[in-house]
Amino acid sequence: MLLSRSHLADLIKAHREQKEISQEELAAQCGVKTNRSAIAHLEQGLRIPKADVLTAIGTFLNIPSVFWEPFTIEESRKRLEFEEILSELVGRTLSLSHLDEESLTSAERQIQKLLSELLSPVQTYDLFNSVLVYYGVPAASWSFFKRFLGPEAFSSLESFEQSVNRYQHQAVQLFSTLREAYVVLNSALDVQPILAPLDPRSVDPYTDRTEWDVIEEISDERLPDLGYISAARVRRESAERQALKTFLEGLAKTTGEHSGPDLSAINEKTKRRMDSLLRKFNSSLPHGLFSPLFAPDADLLEREAARLAPKSDIELVRMSETQHIAQRNLAQYLSADYLDAYVATSMRTDADFVSVNQFVRALFAHNLVRPLRLRYFNPTQSWIDDRIAKGLVEALMLRRAAVTIYMAQKTDTFGKDSEASVALGQGRPVIVYVPKLIVENLDIDTEKLFRETRAQLVTMLKTEDEVLAEDIDESIDDEALVSRILTTRLHAAGDDQLIAAIRRQWADFDLYGEAERIPSDDRSIYRTWLDRVIGDLKDEELRDPLRSQIVSVLVATAVRFERRAQLFREQHPLALQIIISSGVLNGILVVRSVQQCAEVLSALIHNNLNLDLVKDEHNYKLLEVGTQSTIRVISRHTLLRNAFEAQYEREKRERRMERAY
After folding, report:
1. Rounded Cα distance, 82 and 76, in Å
2. Residues 6+ apart with CB under 8 A from 442
3. C-beta separation of 344 from 419 below 8 A
4. Is 373 in contact with 206 (CB distance < 8 Å)?
């Protein structure tokens, strides 16, 4: 009885555990020279040891020889390895256990001949198809054989495995299961048309276009004008805005006299009206008046009063001009000859507008992207007053766009998530940009730090701060270690370095929104300092406690974004979506910088992503090498694989019948 390698592995492990001995103890006690690694590889089904070692292990564990002895016979072992590789090719588990002894011997001889004799391409093809008969596998087509195998694939088992891996690399990109891939590719007289979507793409159709210079650039300073309804409506709301401004300024005064805003003297009718106005004007205060969590500091209330206050005639004229520019831009987006990229984002604060616009501007001006003359929808440069029309615009842009770029902020919205899901379901690539903290001359790159091993992090911390390193134990996780390293390095920074980092990343990190991390008595000082730094005013000396507070905010926000990057790569519901038409699992590409985003976007346009096939016990995964993002998956789970095949085969059959009628 010849089991598969995985069955033998399970059998060895079960008997070892029944004896209650470790892998190391088994290696020492089995009676021949071996080691723990050999036992581990055997139990993982990765490698079967030499015949004398396997005999000793099987005998020591009291496993009946009928289960392991065939693995000590060279012809049988070679046939078994061939069988496992062939199973990977056709997408289902193959075995010759159903054959009689004579047929089994004949099969092993044919396999031995296939792997040992020098044959012509046609002779190898014929012999390979003869071997497939023993396994009940449909013959390979000549087109399939030439493209993926050829005589060189059978020069050794290693060559056969390498050829199958190359085949799977392509099959995983196009099919929902490997079984479907084998059936479809073998049913075609020529596999090239099926594989054509994987061929590198000429960029001539892009570079031959006219320059797309029709969008009127709206500066960062004027972008907040687009966060309002029309200037005319803002003018009509003047009385309501004045009432709300007066109310918030009054609250700010009571906050200065108490630990929080004093609402006790305000009647319920006024509270309800003001609470409604806060919602109407999209207040940025974190909670409503009736929430027990409503506790803004005086400075925040005064800033909100100024933001929501009636606009002067000069401001209204400027707002109207900005909105008209954005409406003209919208007309250009709607009538664009192509739409190559759609930027999905949510913009609730002024920082969001600035963050998105700076990223988009830098990305499409990048030297890898700029020559392609791409058409892209920048939501910060477009405006329409009607909410429903705005949704329709975004739906149309999303439908047209070849690539969606999803900007991961500190929190995400249902709308933005839905847009990414729709794009993935249509089979379009989705790039997710997650900011990170970079201070080059301080050796700070949070993405790189989070990829270090625990041992490396401990060594870094001991080198940089022995005091902080003294209490490291198992209760301190890797994230805490990175936080300590970041804190140490930022504290060592000069004021100029720290200020430059904040100027560069305040919008991505929404540092105004992080004021809640600052003690309430110091928040006004913190926000005023940000005003001066971002406004590029003369910098003052950065002293404690403000300096320590800023370092704390940067570390906390940077770590939060690293968690989000990990979430998108590994756990987020968006990480994989089924392409509706084919059943192929489509994954997102997580990028961490404008440079990396430009590289990925350029590779998508050229259709030459650098992909690596990774197999584990659960899945076949295609990873984009630079970002380590999973963009395609085929599951090894038998029932799940069967369900995919049954469901999509039924749908394809129904579509064929519909076309027939």
Report:
1. 10
2. 489, 490, 492, 493, 497
3. yes
4. yes
User: Buried b / exposed e across 1-16, counting CB within 10 Å, b at 16+?
Assistant: ebbbbeebbebbbebb
Give this prediction's pTM.
0.85
* Residue type present at position 567: L
DSSP letter string over 389-439? Answer: HHHHHHHHHHHH-SEEEEE--SS--HHHHHHHHHHHHTT--EEEE----EE
Q: What is the layout of strands, in order, in the sheet containing 585-587?
A: 576-578, 585-587, 629-635, 619-624, 611-615
Q: What distance in Å separates the CA atoms of residue 641 and residue 177, rounded to the nearest whole number?
A: 7
> Taking the CB of residue 406, how many other CB atoms lie within 10 A of it?
26
Length of the chain, please?
A: 661
| Edge-to-edge strands, sheet with 430-433 | 376-377, 341-344, 403-407, 430-433, 589-591
For residue 387, what are the CA distances in angstroms to 215, 238, 383, 390, 391? 22, 22, 10, 5, 6
> Taking a C-beta distance cutoff of 8 angstroms, is the pair 344, 406 a contact?
yes
Q: Which pLDDT tens digit goes with each residue over 521-563? A: 888 999 999 988 888 766 667 888 999 999 999 999 999 999 9
d(CA 302, CA 299) in angstroms, rounded, equals 5
Count of CB atoms within 10 A of residue 564's CB? 20
Half-sphere exposure of 197 (CA within 13 A, CB side): 9
Of the candidates 128, 137, 83, the residue with the CA atom closest to the CA atom of residue 110? 128
Whether 91 and 68 have beta carbons less than 8 Å apart is answered as: no
Question: What are 101-156's pLDDT values in tens digits?
Answer: 889 889 889 999 999 888 999 999 999 999 999 999 999 999 999 999 999 999 99
Rounded to 10 deg, the angle between the 36-43 and 5-19 helix axes is 120
Q: Which residue do the tokens 């991961």 mark?
A: 408
Task: Tell me the two tokens of residue 139.
Answer: 């013959």
What are the E-state strand segments in 75-126?
Answer: none
* CB distance 352 to 345 below 8 Å: yes
Q: What is the CA radius of gyration of the chain?
A: 32
What is the spatial distance between Cα 392 and Cα 388, in angstroms, rounded to a whole number?
Answer: 6
> What CA–CA distance (Å, rounded) separates 450 from 459?
14
